[in-house]
Design a protein that fits this description.
The complex is a heterodimer.
Chain A lengths: L2 H24 L26 E5 L3 H12 L3 E5 L17 E3 L5 E3 L15 E2 L4 H8 L3 E4 L7 E3 L10 E3 H21 L9 H15 L15 E3 L9 E2 L5 H7 L2 H4 L11 E4 L4 H11 L3 E2 L3 E7 L4 E6 L5 E6 L1 E4 L3 H4 L8 H9 L1 E2 L2 E8 L3 H4 L7 E4 L5 E3 L10 E9 H8 L3 H12 L6 H4 E8 L11 E2 L2 H6 L1 H5 L5 E3 L11 H21 L1
Parallel strand pairs in A: 1-2, 1-16, 2-12, 7-19, 16-24
Antiparallel strand pairs in A: 3-4, 5-11, 6-11, 7-8, 9-10, 13-14, 14-15, 17-23, 18-21, 18-22, 19-20
Helix pairs in contact in A: 2-8, 2-17, 4-5
Chain B lengths: L1 H26 L16 E3 L9 E3 L6 E3 L15 H4 L3 H18 L7 E8 L11 H11 L10 E6 L10 E8 L5
Parallel strand pairs in B: 4-5
Antiparallel strand pairs in B: 1-2, 3-6, 4-6
Helix pairs in contact in B: 3-4
The chains are: A alpha+beta, B alpha+beta.
Chain lengths: 521, 183
């Protein structure tokens, strides 16, 4: 008997609970979510008595996770999804895909077949629960190059290094070299009142020499780490180094202030992406729960009573319909939910309306030649600028192939609003012009673009929830509690806002809360 | 030695070419390889979101078209004393024509959503001070296009002419529709 046959036999005899138990025993469920350990399976059969039917609003990652986990525990779920596709912000743009932003014109992606652009989430840290779901759903991953020292820093109005593209490795070697030199000398000359023995100080200086690549006299005079004018090679080619930038210039550049972005836990290498586009995750979920999804179902009203929840929606044929259930898991972004009539408590309505969402945008540029690889030796990673385009991302897939899609801008705040307010053609031209300061190949090699302003995207109206410390104190606790029979879930109900993991973790907590409530009933 | 020189010459030439081409890149924001706006799976309508018509429309190359003839209004009352009694005013006539076109399209499996272009001929209405009732036509259009039920905004030409075949007709409309592709 195969493992699957065994589980089916167990299922026939003992129902979902027994299967769950058997699966746990067999170790098939993997590591459970860090935040939410689901109730012991023996008690889940309370679902047979009460709260069987769950109405889930939104077939993004949170909604589909909730449906997957609730159905595992024997609940019946229906998912209302406004769009005609699953995934929500977990989305990949390919040839022929079309989007119309609010107040905008229809935009059609003209990328070549086989090329894609992730307008939303684009990278996965290895400690996120996202990895677990990719494993469970069989989504193949590949490395996402979040850090590449071959890429550039480029800044304007920052002193002598203004308007120059500087390889990140040069900036890093120089900043680390000079600061190590300063500290090593200070320690060496006892300029600091340190609670260290002479032997400790020697060890500290030894470390700083290695950290900064200092010479025997503790001077930083450049380093092979920053690259070479002529690379070391065969025969009699030892390599020719370049002089480091001077201390004042490198400090004025401010490049060092950007190093920490890759130090944060969520941005450290290794990072990953699904092979073939981020929407492989959403599509894998839809293979499991797609039959529960009603597409093009736009929620018009949320009502609840002592005994259940009723959601009115406009169906794909234009008719107004109703979905009812014992509980509702609402994953609609707060930026959209605030405009949907609902009989939430006064506190909940106020909290929903108070949370602001990030303004953010991206553009995908298709180039006919991978000049960043061929001409400049950059394979994945990102260039960091202080221009409105903010960043340029080089693709982490299909290296050495002919064409590629580069993220021409990924920006936030005012820059995102400014670019978002432009026409599609203006966005493209603006980003090409700024990017061409770094890559003069841009205009000649450019073929087509697709841009997104998340704060102008219907059914999203923002990139992610953007809480202030005061919001977390004043409103988040209210949002985190069920309003009667309605539970909120999604990245906005987490401390992982903007990450897919926030959607997963939050959905699991909601699933747990409903299951526990049903058991107590 | 000769070979070495040749290599160096080639390298220099390459450097010169690449320097030239970089200068060319920097010289002007030309995008010689930029794709055209050729549509892919669907008809594409262009123009301002606030306009009630499209400024233009593109149809993918593998879609088929339907052209209607100039379609004229249905008679309302043969015994009417006036044009308005016999055929209605411009708006009434226009609505009557659009209903006819809608029925023609339906017979071919099309809907008003598939209309990409309208050419509209109007004549002056003797019962409205001899003026062309453009607004009457625009109102009729607004009942069929750019609505919640049918968001299609067609490309359109609206022109006044000296006369139509029947002197009671105040309007005649030609429609072009594109057959949607099964995806």
């Amino acid at each position: 008997m195969s493992r699957r046959q065994f589980l089916m036999q167990v299922g026939k005899a003992g129902g979902a609970v027994a299967v769950y138990s058997a699966m746990s025993t067999l170790g098939l469920l993997g590591q459970s979510a860090s935040a939410a350990t689901l109730p012991p399976p023996g008690e889940v059969n309370a679902a047979q008595r009460n709260g069987k039917r769950i109405v889930i609003l939104g077939a993004g990652l949170a909604g589909m996770t909730a449906a997957l986990e609730m159905t595992k525990a024997g609940y019946e779920c229906v998912i209302l999804e406004a769009r005609s596709r699953p995934g929500g912000r977990n989305w990949t743009i390919r040839r022929g895909d079309a989007v119309t932003e609010t107040g905008g014109v229809k935009q059609v992606a003209r990328f070549d077949e086989g090329l894609y652009f992730n307008p939303g989430p684009a990278r996965i840290p290895q400690h996120h629960i996202t990895m677990k779901y990719c494993r469970e759903l069989g989504v193949p991953l590949e490395v996402f190059g979040n850090v590449n020292d071959a890429a550039y820093f480029y800044s304007e109005n920052v002193g002598p290094l203004s308007g120059k593209k500087i390889r990140k490795r040069e900036a890093k070697a120089d900043v680390r070299g000079y600061t190590s030199e300063l500290l090593a000398k200070a320690v060496d000359r006892n300029a600091l009142n340190l609670p260290l023995s002479e032997s400790d100080k020697e060890k500290l200086v030894a470390y700083l020499r290695r950290e900064g690549d200092l010479d025997a006299d503790l001077f930083y005079k450049g380093s092979g780490r920053r690259g070479y004018k002529v690379l070391p090679g065969g025969g009699e080619t030892p390599g020719v180094r370049e002089e480091p930038y001077n201390l004042s210039a490198i400090i004025q550049s401010g490049f060092g202030n950007s190093f920490n972005s890759e130090y944060s836990l969520d941005q450290q290498m290794m990072m990953f992406q699904p092979v073939g586009g981020m929407d492989q995750i959403g599509k894998a979920f839809a293979r499991k729960v797609g039959h529960m999804i009603r597409y093009q179902a736009v929620v018009q009203r949320i009502r609840q009573s002592e005994s259940g929840v009723s959601v009115t929606y406009r169906a794909d044929d234009g008719s107004v319909q109703e979905a009812t259930g014992d509980y509702c898991i609402c994953t609609i972004p707060l930026s959209v939910l605030k405009d949907i009539p609902a009989d939430f408590s006064k506190e909940m309505s106020e909290a929903i309306g108070k949370i602001s969402y990030a303004t953010t945008g991206k553009i995908g540029f298709q180039f006919r030649r991978r000049f960043w690889e061929i001409d400049e030796g950059i394979y994945s990673g990102m260039t960091t600028t202080n221009m409105d385009i903010n960043q340029i991302w080089y693709p982490s897939s299909d290296y050495l192939s002919r064409k590629g899609i580069v993220v021409g801008y990924y920006n936030f705040g005012e820059a995102a609003v400014q670019l978002g307010d432009m026409s599609l053609a203006e966005r493209e031209e603006y980003a090409l012009k700024q990017g061409a300061k770094i890559h003069p190949q841009y205009h000649k090699e450019f073929e087509t673009s697709f841009s997104i302003a998340w704060h102008k995207t219907t059914y999203n109206m923002g990139g992610w929830a953007s809480y202030s410390a005061a919001d977390r104190k004043d409103y988040y606790p209210t949002l985190n509690k069920p309003d009667g029979r309605v539970y909120l879930a999604g990245e906005h109900m987490s401390y992982l806002t903007g990450w897919m993991a926030g959607a997963f973790e939050s959905a699991l907590l909601t699933v747990k809360a409903i299951q526990e409530r049903v058991m107590k009933a | 030695m000769k070979i070495r020189n040749k290599w160096m010459l080639t390298a220099l030439t390459a450097a010169a070419i690449s320097a030239l081409s970089i200068t060319a890149y920097a010289a002007g924001p030309m995008t010689p390889n930029k794709y055209t706006a050729e549509p892919i799976h669907e008809v594409e309508f262009y123009g301002s979101p606030s306009s009630s018509i499209a400024s233009g429309v593109s149809v993918p190359q593998d879609m088929a078209y339907l052209w209607t003839s100039g379609t004229v209004p249905p008679m309302l009352n043969r015994d009417g004393k006036t044009i308005h009694e016999r055929y209605g005013d411009t708006k009434t006539q226009a609505v009557g024509i659009l209903k006819r076109i809608e029925a023609d399209l339906k017979a071919k499996g099309l809907t008003m959503k598939d209309v990409v272009y309208l050419r509209v001929y109007l004549v002056a209405d003797p019962e409205k001070e001899g003026k062309v009732d453009y607004d009457g036509w625009f109102e009729a259009y607004g009942e069929y296009f750019n609505t919640e039920a049918n968001p299609t905004k067609t490309a359109r030409s609206t022109l006044a002419v000296a006369g139509l075949v029947n002197s009671d007709w105040l309007i005649e409309i030609e429609a072009v529709a594109a057959y949607p592709k099964k995806r």
